[in-house]
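Same chain as my last thread, 240 residues:
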Amino acid sequence: MGHGVLVVGSGSPIGRAIGRAFAAAGDTVVGASLEPVDEPAFAVTLVADCSAAAGATSAVQATVDAAGRLDVVVLAAAAMPVAPLTETTDEQWRAALDATLGTAFAVGRAALPLLPPGGAVVAVSSVNAFLAAPGVPAYAAAKAGLEGLVRQLALEYGPRGIRVNAVAPGMIGGDAIPDAAAGYPLGRTGTPEEVAEAVLYLAGAGFVTGAVLPVDGGLSIASPAAFLRADLRRRWGIGG
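reply #2:
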């Protein structure tokens, strides 16, 4: 029997890929996003602001109605304003925190009472939660908060048999950006499908909880010196 899966943030390339991965596994997948989504993998698509209690509750209920159950919740919603902190507006700051952290709070509050033992929550974080990059203070703060919430929920709901984990992608789909793969030991950026594979794994990894799994081509293990120093690049053949 397939699972009932809710993907919040289903309109992004990563959200769509996650929906396709679960549907291919035989699950009934409901997608929720701020805009209409045309993706056959979703049995139901819902336009809802899941950072608000009403939207979160409607998304959870839509999954129960479509699948007869709720087994997996994927938190993939985000907003990434690009500006230094001194130029970030109040609206941008709130939008980033609401989209990622507010949505995780509201959906988690609505979904956790319905998840059975063996149920799972998987959040989509980012390497920006623990690796600083210029121009994304609101996004980084939101993702770091999301990882803190993941650990908290894993601790509190583990005794009920509910697992809570996160994936932390590096750059996804950066082929059109010059030098986007610089700093990635695998020599390339990732794909939405590779993030989806990791989410699918964590949803079924029965003895893994409270973990943040990097899906970043090795970016988070690399010293900047390995890519900034020409002598090291030549010695080890890194980065071409």
